[in-house]
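Here is a typical protein record:
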Amino acid sequence: MPGLVVASDMTASLAAIASSLPLQAGLLGTQAGQLLVALLAVALVIIVGKFVLKLAWRLVTIGIVIVAAFFLLSTLGLI
């Protein structure tokens, strides 16, 4: 492509336009829309955290049972 010329500031201007488009239109264009997106993000974090904590409690409970069994067996001199 011998006739192709790219201006030095073309990339910067395209990046600025591309990053400002989602903020100007649609849901993020208003404060109420931004608040809705933020609340949805918080709800997603809470839902994911709920499942992670449920798994964590199970792992902690299993760990307590295993350590308690090991402690009892070592106290009795079996291990």
Q: What stands out?
A: The helical segments are 10-24, 31-75.
